[in-house]
Design a protein that fits this description.
Keywords: Magnesium, Metal-binding, Methyltransferase, Transferase. By secondary structure, the protein is of the alpha/beta class. It contains twelve helices and nine strands. The chain has a single domain, classed as Rossmann fold (3-Layer(aba) Sandwich). The strands form two sheets. A seven-stranded mixed sheet has the order 5-4-3-6-7-9-8, sandwiched between helices.
Length: about 400
């Protein structure tokens, strides 16, 4: 599978679009949206949503603000920006999500405040929004037109698209001051090789690492992540000025167990739904056995090892942040929304491999499985994010 050709988030603003589900898929917050107006089913759900949203926002926004401020406030020989005319920012994997606008707002506001404190002119800001070519740049740029032209009239701000894979070079040498990426770099450049010496599939009946997967599957996924993450760092190191910052938020895991729910739950549900359709003879078994997702949820130790081995960046922050995404007392009845969110992320891959004709039935099956899980689970399902801040070495 050529990942860069078949991996993209669902387009438009329909129920299963990435834009419609981005509040959930970016932050794993259960918000019921319709035409950008959030509504909820009971007061208990309101409290839970607001609490989760505020907690994650409170965790991530100050991290980005501090990374920007550090560009201004380091010692006089190392600082980058007080005399800089243009600040170049890259957002990797921005897709069509309101998160992109929120990140841009944080960057602009922090730059303005930092320049005010230092009594220096605000540099022009150049935002390069990157994603694979199949993603919905049209929806993204529609939302940005009013944002750039109305809210920040007194700031010289430029926005451009940068289609392509962040696993390789995207920008000129020594041009970037800040790189940001929210829930993107856990996607791999390709599916690892999961065949034995005789050409038989190693991961039968599953689409990701599972408890029934042989050790070779775990080893192949880890090796592919190490190769891809190292390539991301190497590419950015060539593109960034010394002292520039990288801020990454990605799916990960705290557990040493590759098969824990925090990293595998979505893929287990999807694999079970596909297997059910195989048993109904709606999907060929060989199709399931030959399909695996190009995704990996690393541990902090695995991320740290790659960064230190690649050698271009110093780690300023590496933390985990866990949220509950499957509390049956809160989400019961919300399985369809969970299914929409999963569909927004995976439909392009699924339809390419299995055919578009099975899509609706498959995600209906996903919803059925989620309803059963949410009704019977004892412990809430947890999702773990890794928050990483890197400094380009001098």
């Amino acid at each position: 599978m050529e990942v860069k050709e078949v991996l993209f988030m669902n387009k438009g603003e329909e129920d299963s679009s990435y834009f419609h589900n981005s509040s959930f898929t970016d932050f794993y917050i259960y918000i019921y949206e319709y035409r950008n107006q959030a509504f909820v089913r009971n007061n208990k759900l309101i409290i839970k949503i607001v609490s989760m949203q505020q907690n994650l926002a409170a965790k991530c926004k100050p991290v980005l603000e501090k990374a920007i401020q550090s560009l201004f406030t380091e010692n006089e020989h190392d600082h980058l920006l007080p005399s800089l005319e243009v600040l170049n920012v890259a957002d990797l994997g921005s897709a069509a999500t309101p998160t992109t606008i929120s990140v841009m707002e944080t960057i602009i506001d922090t730059v303005k405040n930092s320049c005010k404190e230092l009594d220096c002119e605000i540099p022009e800001l150049n935002f390069c929004l990157n994603d694979l070519p199949g993603n919905d740049f049209n929806t993204l740029f529609k939302g940005l037109c009013s944002f750039v032209g109305e809210k920040y009239k007194n700031v010289s701000c430029f926005v451009m698209g940068a289609p392509g894979s962040f696993h390789g070079r995207l920008f000129p040498r020594n041009s970037l001051h800040l790189v940001h990426s929210c829930y993107s770099v856990h996607w791999l450049s390709k599916v690892p090789r999961l065949w034995d010496e005789e050409g038989l599939p190693l991961n039968k009946g599953k689409i990701y690492i599972s408890k029934t997967s042989p050790p070779a599957v775990r080893e192949a996924y880890l090796a592919q992540f190490q190769q891809d993450f190292s390539s991301i760092l190497m590419s950015r190191s060539q593109e960034m000025v010394p002292g520039g910052r990288v801020v990454l938020i990605l799916h990960g895991r705290q557990s040493t167990d590759f098969t824990s729910n925090e990293s595998c739950y979505n893929w287990e549900v999807l694999a079970k739904a596909i297997a059910d359709m195989v048993s109904m003879e709606l999907i060929d078994k060989d199709k399931l056995d030959s399909f695996n997702v190009p995704h990996y949820s690393p541990s902090p130790e695995e991320v740290k090892e790659v960064i230190e081995k690649e050698g271009s960046f110093a780690i300023e922050l590496l933390e985990t942040y866990a949220t509950e995404v499957g509390d049956k007392n809160i989400w019961n009845g919300g399985a369809k929304d969970f299914s929409h969110a999963l569909r927004s992320l995976t439909e392009s891959m699924i339809s390419h491999h299995f055919g578009i004709e099975i899509i609706d039935k498959l995600y209906d099956k996903v919803t059925d499985i989620l309803v059963q899980d949410f009704a019977t689970q004892i412990e809430p399902i947890k999702d773990t994010s890794l928050i990483v801040v890197l400094k380009r070495k001098m």
